[in-house]
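Quick one: structure for this chain?
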Amino acid sequence: MDWSRVQPEVAGVTQVCSYDRAGMGWSDAGPRPRTGSRIASELRALLRGAHVPGPYVLVGHSSGGLHVRLFASSHPDDVAGIVLVDAAHEDASRRMPPQGGGQGDSRFTLYLHAFLTVVGYARLDGIWFARAGEFSPEARRLANGIKQRTEWPFAYASESLASEETAAEVRRTRHVLDVPLMVVTKGRYAGIRRLPADTQERIKQTWQELQTDLVGLSPLGAQVVASNGDHYVQFDQPEVVIDAIETVVTAARRDAR
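Got it. Here's what it folds into:
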């Protein structure tokens, strides 16, 4: 559902595949711990099992940015380009102010979040179902079905519990990626509006610095800021994400020639 406003447009340019990680959407739960390296290896197994040939342009949003970077580090020959959509950074927990989510949640808080989700405070990977009106008709039907499932809150919590290990994996494998790279960054920060003004500025500045650092992952890296987009840029300004993907696909094809 995250890509329901992006995938149909990009499909006019190239083959597009999206999937739900283990425990998300309609996917079965996967083995724990839910580290980024495990998720990346499962993605590779999925692509091989579905007979989707590479090389690929990988698109990762939020924590998915860490997963596609781990995939690229482990299988560089399979990656032709990367698009990071307001992607997480491995050093966010060290550098972001506490109010910006930088210190991470306790295990108790994460499990409590999963429990509350099951009993009624339903969220889908950070998207309130109140936003379901922004989905395509097909995605809305899928969302209504997923609300009845209980696996994904625990998958979400499991990934969160392994977030520091995932960050460490990304740090260990970080290296220059010699592929076209586009970093799409949000321009709005609605979630911090109630915080003190100086805290808001610190959060914004730190996030921008982390996003700029991601651009440096490749000598072919570039950044675009979605001025009207919050964290889910693909809903707020899907055209920005579509253009970024198509730009990287074009560059990857040119490099291949």
